[in-house]
Amino acid sequence: MQHDLRARLIEHYAELSALTARECSGACARPRSCCEERYCDIAVDYAKTRWQVELQPTWHKALPLMGDDGCTAAPHLRPICTAHTCEICTHGEKRGDGAWTARYYEIMTAIAEIEAVVFADAIVRGEP
Ligand code: SF4
Ligand code: SF4
User: Fold this and answer.
1) Which of 37, 38, 51, 108 is the most exposed place for a label (fewest CB within 10 A)?
2) How many angstroms separate the alpha carbon of residue 23 from the centre of ligand 1?
3) How many domains are contained in the chain?
């Protein structure tokens, strides 16, 4: 069961990533400018504790997980980054696009429901 739920989680994060990445690649004058070393560090910790994955640093001097074609971590291993867009962060929605916003929150809800089961122990312990 855990295996199936984790597989679904990976799918949901991949879909979320496709949804949010479109916003950034299409609309951002400074794509990836919101990346910071501390978010990479969070992703490294998260991947290790929740998924037992050791993310390897890249050549990038400022951003440990940034590669030639963008972030090298899979979407489910860097949830904060995957879920982030400027519109959601600032306004809690994509203004003027109710369908996009509805889909965003649908995926986020599905993710939260699965994570509550899969990571129950860690959530109780208050881990990231
Ligand atoms: S979240 Fe905002 S700043 Fe970051 S890449 Fe997307 S649009 Fe640009
Ligand atoms: S998207 Fe990747 S490179 Fe950017 S801050 Fe997040 S983990 Fe680091």
Assistant:
1) 38
2) 8
3) 1
